[in-house]
Structures are given as structure tokens and as C-alpha cells.
Amino acid sequence: MRHAIGLAATLALLAVLAPPALASDSGPLYTWRYAELYYASEAVPSSSPGIHSQLTIRISQSETRDGATSTVQVISTGWSTSAGGGMDYDWYAAYEIVGPYDPSLGGVDPSLRSAWISTGPIELACYQGQCPALPAQLSVSGTWTATGPASATTEKVIDDLGWSSNLMRRERPASSDVVLSPALDRPAVLIRSVIASQSQVSIPLR
């Protein structure tokens, strides 16, 4: 549940960066490449009493017609369920860098074969709820290496103005060796370790 918030926030950023699809447009409106680790305290979200947590580690780079950006995210989310089944509290905390493209922070190979990340200390921000005790700063370093072929999907999208575009996604499973310093407790189940891309290409009117 909380993992979706982090991904939705990133996609919302891309939506802002991407210019409107115009009839005369050709080529990508944006391309987003990322490598991601996603851990959860259980494989299937549960409402059982106790603390349920997720941790997302992501390096991404986006390219639009207006330029390129780099993003690093280490996102801790979760909630506590009472014995009666209600939510006691939840949280959304993150270490984030978002800015102009900076190859020193890491990168994703266009073929999705590999990715890497390397940062200095990133400040913690508690965006929502009752955040757990986390280090005030965190550094991230490591690599992802693809372990299988890419799966691909294409979806036709029609925006609020009626213009059409193709949304193309590619994703490869990957092994990873990513270190957090100081170390954070990672939830027990590794849900995803992938290198992926998403690109939106306008469909010119004929």
C-alpha cells in the first residue's frame, strides 16, 4: 500500500516534467530508467495485529525534451495495526535527492543490463505520520546486475486534451549488492529487484 505512494509520487513528477503531447510531436515525450529494490514485512499485505513495513531503494534518471534529472530514494513506509484490527498509526519517511542529471549519483544502462548508485549523506525527512527512529543521514552505494531477459508491455494512453501516446515499459530481474550506511533493518521479504524503463511516445494525428 505505502509502496504505491512512493511510486505514484515519482510518476507524478514525470507527468509534470513531460510536455503535453501535441499533434506534431514525434519521438519520446520522456524516458524514465530506474533500478529498484523493494522489501516488505510480508509477501502479501496483511491486516493482522503488529507493525507492517516496507523499504524501497531506487536510483532513477529521466529524460524529457526540457532536460534530464537524477533521483535517489530510500523510502521507509508502514503502519501499525491494533489487536482490534484498526490502524494505530502509519508513516512515510524518505532520504531523497531530486535534481538535474548528475552522473556521479549513479546511472542505469539503456540496455537495462546494469545499474549503480553512489551518494554522500542524504538528509532524512518524515513526510507523514509517526515515523520510526531512523538515522538523520544515510549514504547509499552499490550495483544491480540483470539476471534475465526483459519483459515488455505497451499501453495506449489518451490525455485530458484527447492526444494519444504509447506508454512502453521494459523490466529485467536483477541481482543486487546495495549497501546502506548506517545500515537500516530491511523488512524480511524481498519483493522486487529490477532494472526497468518507461517511455512515453506521442502518436501524431493523421
Main pleated sheet: 8 strands, antiparallel, barrel
**Helix coverage percent:** under 10%
The average pLDDT score comes to 87
Rg for CA atoms? 18 Å
Q: Could you tell me the strand content as a percent range?
A: over 45%
Could you give the order of the helices and strands? HEEEEEEEEEEE
The coarse overall form would be globular
The spatial strand order of the largest sheet comes to 1-2-3-4-7-8-10-11
Structural class based on helices, strands and sheet pairing: mainly beta
Uncertain spans = 1-24
Please describe the topology of this protein.
Elements: H1 2-17, E1 28-40, E2 50-64, E3 67-81, E4 87-100, E5 106-108, E6 114-118, E7 122-129, E8 137-146, E9 151-158, E10 164-181, E11 189-202
Antiparallel strand pairs: 1-2, 1-11, 2-3, 3-4, 4-7, 5-6, 6-8, 7-8, 8-10, 9-10, 10-11
Describe this structure in words.
This protein is mainly beta. The protein has 1 helix and 11 strands. Strands 1-2-3-4-7-8-10-11 form an 8-stranded antiparallel barrel. It is globular and about 55 Å long. The N terminus is likely disordered.
Tell me briefly what this model is:
By secondary structure, the chain is mainly β. It has one helix and eleven strands. An eight-stranded antiparallel beta barrel has the order 1-2-3-4-7-8-10-11.
